[in-house]
Amino acid sequence: QVQLVESGGGLVQAGGSLRLSCAASGRTFSMYPMGWFRQAPGKEREFVGAISWSFGNIYYADSVKGRFTIFRVQNTVYLQMNILKSEDTAVYYCAAKARNSALATTDDYVYWGQGTQVTVSS
Length: 122
What we know:
- The protein is built from no helices and 11 strands.
- By secondary structure, it is mostly beta strands.
């Protein structure tokens, strides 16, 4: 089992930055890719990006490429968000897979955090 706990959400002005954290615990010795998702009110959940646990490969959705950065330090995965826009407002979730698969595959995440709210004011 893997437990994921996000933190770092909040209110920020457009153009600003915010860093989210996702602390993983449990079976971290055999971690597989981890990803970030977001869900805005009234919209479907959207994939943001993913990172492989062992090699650090990273894959981003086009909507955040160039503005968001994912990186890992030990058992914590971070989502650094820069040049934030009002359309980035959402609840952000981190998730982990239970097997190795392509980072572009987004429908096989098994473990989920509780989510953290990010609000970007214009």
